[in-house]
Amino acid sequence: MSRSRKGSKKASRKSSASSKPSANRKPVELDAEQVSAAIAPIELPTDELERLAAAMSQRHANVMRVRRDRTDAFRISRSDADSHNQADVPWYPLALAIPDGFHASRSIDFAAGEFYLQDAGSLLALAAAQADTDSLSGQLVCDLCAAPGGKATGLLEAIGDDGFLLANEPIRSRVAPLAYNLSRTGSDRYAISSEDPDALAEKLPGVFDTILIDAPCSGQALLSRGRQSKGAVNESMVATNAARQQRILAAAHKLLRPGGTIVYSTCTFAVAENEDQVDWMIRELEMQPSPVSTLSDYQSPLADCGYRVWPHRDGCAGAFAARLTKPIAADPTEETAEFSEDPWLLRRGVLRSEQPLDSDCDELIQSVLGVSPSENATEDDSGFFRQRDWITEAFCKGAPEWVKQDWTIGPEVAHRTGQTWKPSHACALRQTNDPLTVNVVRIELNDAEAATFLAGGTVPTDQRGWLIVQHQGRPLGWAKADGRIGKNHLPTHARMQVAKNAVQEQST
Ligand SMILES: C[S@@+](CC[C@H](N)C(=O)[O-])C[C@H]1O[C@@H](n2cnc3c(N)ncnc32)[C@H](O)[C@@H]1O
């Protein structure tokens, strides 16, 4: 990576193209009185209320949450992480402000999944989950309200090579972007579900070590992006959301193992949706506050284990996050799914199919990936392929037994268009040492060739068949080659016009 980190100014002072409001979404403005009512009973001096009102209608620049295995390339060091105050996003040191002039969202780095672009406020929840440390490594984690994956992708990176993530999103139409974003991490240690939290809690009681509930809320922090109307501060809107949040929290409590951790977050300012929910969990669910020492600067005035970042103080849209644990001595008769106690098989190796795959799909997987999905499973093989009508998934070895149930969705490995099976984009993006794709032929592109490929163009190659196209060793997608050129198989949603400055930055 040639680009260096430029100083350590706060995110709020940086400018970038992604900070521009979209043409058709105007920020919604509130006056100080309306803001005061929205945050009551938290009281702020009048001049601060005015600054808050002004900052709430101002769009803040996104930041880059850099993929954990790429922090070296972006020159983020552990010492940055240890000295929070020096970091661009002090509550989440593994994030960087977008350097001036760098068109982050239209760079090859972005296409290669090097970073996720998000509001710095949304990193408060990841900070409360300690996703910037090794605390989640090896854990079984659930993101209960996961789409589009801004936090699920951070959790997936934080669980490492021996944890597992269930990313749940009840709204079906939001599952595809979630799946795409998860695949961009290169990890295969996840499954997706699309369940109402109550229904999920019936299926997996007492299973998870950590659960993130980034709850649907009145979204007052989204006013600055024009993604909410003034109705976001109506009492009835807040009350409706608070009631829904309690239902979700009760389900999360059932899903959590004794001793496990709940991280609750919203992007709203209303106390009824934030600190009051923390009180309710302590009172009604007997949860215990679990303060996060690195977040003490952001302590809520109303909850010991609750934290707030504010638009006028912290240069972001604003957010709330809290961390609580479920006591180990909870009701001993409480139901716990029996498979939660199974030892995990955490080995990696060749995957096998439990049921024979469609013969064309089987052939594709054998010829492109060089593995034989339909051979009999051996004792050591816990990872497996599964075929649905149109897609074949490949779950990682060591995935919990319950991923085999039909309500889960696994990392996609191949899909059918008409009668023809093709390798899936998600499969190309797997880490280059992933046993599933380690045998695939790869071709390396220079900056200009990569930009052409990302825009949907062909690639020069004397190879034949399915190839993974790479830039600086990072997979970008599939091409199918005939010995002269490789035809582009990037899905439409993964195509982009690389900005000129982003290419030039790479080559300097
Ligand atoms: C604030 S967004 C989550 C954003 C996501 N965590 C991220 O960082 O990208 C809340 C999500 O909850 C989902 N949702 C809506 N109703 C829900 C419910 N009853 N239970 C769980 N999730 C729900 C929404 O569809 C939405 O995707």
From TrEMBL:
InterPro entries: MeTrfase_RsmB-F_NOP2_cat, MeTrfase_RsmB-F_NOP2_dom, Nol1_Nop2_Fmu_2, RCMT, SAM-dependent_MTases_sf
Start and end residues of each SAM-dependent MTase RsmB/NOP-type domain: 38-327
Any one GO BP annotation for this protein: RNA methylation
Matches recorded under Gene3D superfamilies: 2.30.130.60, Vaccinia Virus protein VP39 (3.40.50.150)
CDD domains registered for this protein in UniProt: AdoMet_MTases
GO molecular function annotations of the record: RNA binding; RNA methyltransferase activity
Family: Belongs to the class I-like SAM-binding methyltransferase superfamily. RsmB/NOP family.
Protein name per UniProt: RNA methylase, NOL1/NOP2/sun family
